[in-house]
């Protein structure tokens, strides 16, 4: 058990203190930390750090920014800890214990494996190499900007691949042909020009009695080498081919005993989750619910499924991604992720057959072995998951029908679904746990802004913070827009920013527009939910903007549209279904102030189509 401060670079840059993850800072601060970590024990000059982070495009403020990042790192580490940053010979030096960096532990364990292999203990070597690969949590330095990080990603990726090749070579030498062939097939899909992988796969296939497949692999790789690089296969690969053709291939005998379990995070175990937020605010209870569901999945006789719902901008994807990373260790065979584009204004919902093809490739199925139909692909997918424990995250689903072929079919795995729609069939037929995210509480919204802007800055202007929260309707997407604007203007008083967030003559949503990315635009986000309504529900939604406050009754809604109450009561659930309003009691409803503002805008433009 490692104690004290632990640093991770084999995946996203992370900092753990006594086993608890702490924020490593914004991306460029992580780039500075990565530069210091990978040169631990050596001073790094200020100019080198600037070049590492920005390259030839460093702005005039770069030197000051680096000093700020180093200061924040010092604050985070604490001068009294065993890991600290100090000024040496005009540069910065980060002291890290040898076992305090996952890369060092990876190298140490890999070296032990090579000693064991050299001594003839292939089983121990394979176990140690699998342990080394298990230290990886994704692409090295994931999300870290700058030319230094890009170069190191390439270097470290090569180390990972070499380790994977060596581990599988041990398995082939042990005679574990069928098991090695499945993983080598997946590795060759990722690295089709890797001749050593090709040779190992040919050997494994031949050993498993699949000679024709081994020869096909050789011809495919030979063609790619000539087509892309203009070279012939290496003499070593040609020799493997000739031995298979002649039948003079001497293979090791399969070892006795059961096949050992693969380590959880080897390169063959998919790790498809996008980068997640370092921490979430105000979602602790929901995360605890999912942790209990994941724990139950290990002993349950049924598949664990959770559907995360909520209004536009409430943070469903961020919650699912962050929670997926938090639960990853409970699912040792990997994590699959797919955005189903359920409410994408510019694209149709994704075809389940297309999603399944991607999942099957990630699980090691050769492209030519993927069945044609979605149903057949679903059967193969569930068959592959039957003996594995995996987390499947299906983001932005439109309907249960879109999901049915994408769900695991056997106990031990878990599906985490997000949707703007209430998926009643998923809950009723599959016993999925419905989990609805609400806008943040006032206290959590304050914490949200404090984490993004710094506690000192928000504490200095509490009234301005409360005004921004009020205007943002406690909605995480709107708060994130406010926080980004404030972060880019550190000298501006928050009171001035709060004034900018106040409803103007153009409406309450203008202050929360995504200038560069429509995904971050609150108005566009709500519009995508509105676009799913049928004409009758859309008409009622617009009319509700006449409600005097955030709460209204079914009878009020009937009065506003001049329709019988019983008919309106049949329409209101469709707005609830789309998470545009919430039912807070029998015949009683509420909605977020930004949703109400959007409804008022739509009412002012009645000729536009729903969602326009």
Structural notes for this entry:
With 612 residues, the protein is α/β, with parallel strands linked by helices. The protein has 5 domains: 98 residues, Winged helix-like DNA-binding domain superfamily/Winged helix DNA-binding domain (Arc Repressor Mutant, subunit A), CATH 1.10.10.10; 143 residues, Serine Threonine Protein Phosphatase 5, Tetratricopeptide repeat; 151 residues, Rossmann fold (3-Layer(aba) Sandwich), CATH 3.40.50; 61 residues; 83 residues, Winged helix-like DNA-binding domain superfamily/Winged helix DNA-binding domain (Arc Repressor Mutant, subunit A, Orthogonal Bundle), CATH 1.10.10. It is built from 26 helices and 14 strands. A hairpin with a 5-residue loop joins strand 1 and strand 2. The protein is globular.
How are the secondary structure elements laid out?
Layout: E1 5-8, E2 14-17, E3 20-22, H1 27-37, E4 44-45, H2 46-54, H3 62-77, E5 84-88, E6 91-95, H4 102-118, H5 122-133, H6 147-173, H7 177-190, H8 195-207, H9 211-229, H10 235-246, H11 284-297, E7 304-309, H12 316-327, E8 335-339, H13 352-362, H14 374-385, E9 391-395, H15 400-403, E10 414-418, H16 424-430, E11 433-436, H17 442-453, H18 455-460, H19 462-472, H20 476-487, H21 494-501, H22 522-530, H23 535-543, E12 551-553, H24 554-561, H25 565-577, E13 582-585, E14 588-590, H26 593-604
Parallel strand pairs: 7-10, 7-11, 8-9, 9-10
Antiparallel strand pairs: 1-2, 2-3, 4-6, 5-6, 12-14, 13-14
């Amino acid at each position: 058990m490692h104690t004290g401060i632990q640093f991770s670079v084999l995946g996203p840059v992370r900092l753990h203190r006594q086993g608890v993850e702490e924020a490593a800072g914004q991306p460029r601060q992580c780039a500075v930390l990565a530069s210091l970590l990978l040169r631990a024990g050596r001073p790094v000059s200020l100019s080198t750090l600037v070049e590492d982070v920005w390259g030839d495009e460093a702005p005039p403020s770069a030197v000051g920014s680096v000093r700020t990042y180093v200061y924040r790192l010092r604050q985070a580490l604490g001068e009294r800890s065993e890991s600290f940053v100090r000024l040496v010979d005009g540069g910065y030096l980060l002291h890290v214990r040898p076992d305090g960096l996952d890369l060092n532990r990876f190298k140490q364990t890999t070296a032990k494996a090579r000693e064991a292999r050299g001594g003839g203990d292939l089983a121990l070597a394979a176990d140690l190499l699998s342990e080394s690969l298990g230290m990886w949590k994704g692409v090295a330095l994931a999300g870290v900007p700058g030319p230094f990080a890009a170069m190191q990603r390439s270097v470290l990726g090569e180390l990972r691949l070499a380790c994977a090749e060596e581990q599988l070579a041990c398995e082939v030498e042990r005679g574990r042909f069928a098991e090695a062939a499945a993983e080598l097939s997946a590795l060759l899909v990722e690295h089709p020009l890797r001749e050593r992988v090709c040779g190992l796969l040919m050997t494994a296939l031949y050993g498993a009695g699949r000679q024709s497949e081994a020869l096909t692999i050789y011809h495919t790789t030979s063609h790619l080498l000539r087509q892309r690089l203009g070279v012939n296969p290496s003499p070593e690969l040609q020799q493997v081919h000739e031995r298979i053709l002649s039948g003079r291939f001497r293979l090791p005998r399969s070892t006795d005993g059961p096949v050992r379990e693969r380590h959880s995070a080897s390169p063959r175990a998919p790790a498809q989750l996008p980068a997640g937020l370092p921490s979430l605010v105000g979602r602790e209870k929901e995360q605890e619910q999912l942790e209990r569901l994941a724990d139950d999945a290990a002993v349950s006789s049924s598949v664990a499924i959770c559907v995360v719902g909520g209004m536009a901008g409430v943070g469903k994807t961020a919650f699912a991604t962050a929670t997926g990373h938090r639960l990853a260790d409970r699912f040792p065979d990997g994590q699959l992720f797919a955005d189903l584009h359920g409410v994408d204004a510019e694209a149709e919902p994704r075809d389940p057959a297309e999603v399944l093809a991607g999942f099957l490739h990630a699980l090691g199925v050769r492209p030519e072995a993927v069945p044609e139909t979605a149903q057949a692909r679903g059967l193969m997918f569930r068959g592959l998951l039957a003996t594995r424990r995996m987390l499947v995250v299906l983001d932005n689903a439109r309907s249960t029908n879109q999901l049915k072929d994408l769900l695991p079919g056997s106990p031990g795995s878990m599906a985490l679904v997000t949707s703007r729609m209430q998926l009643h069939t998923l809950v009723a037929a599959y016993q999925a746990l419905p989990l609805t995210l609400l806008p943040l509480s006032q206290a959590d919204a304050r914490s949200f802004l404090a984490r993004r802007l710094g506690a000192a800055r928000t504490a200095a202007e509490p009234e301005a913070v409360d005004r921004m929260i009020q205007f943002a309707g406690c909605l995480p997407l709107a708060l994130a827009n406010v926080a980004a604007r404030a972060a880019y203007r550190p000298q501006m008083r928050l009171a001035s920013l709060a004034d900018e967030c106040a409803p103007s003559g153009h409406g309450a949503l203008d202050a929360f527009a995504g200038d560069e990315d429509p995904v971050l635009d609150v108005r566009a986000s709500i519009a995508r939910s509105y676009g799913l309504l049928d004409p009758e529900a859309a008409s009622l939604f617009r009319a509700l903007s006449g409600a005097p406050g955030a709460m209204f009754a079914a009878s009020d809604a009937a009065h506003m549209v001049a329709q019988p109450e019983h008919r309106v009561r049949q329409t209101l659930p469709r707005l609830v279904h789309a998470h545009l309003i919430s039912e807070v009691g029998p015949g009683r409803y509420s909605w977020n102030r930004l949703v109400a503002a959007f409804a008022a805008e739509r009412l002012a433009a009645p000729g536009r189509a729903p969602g326009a």
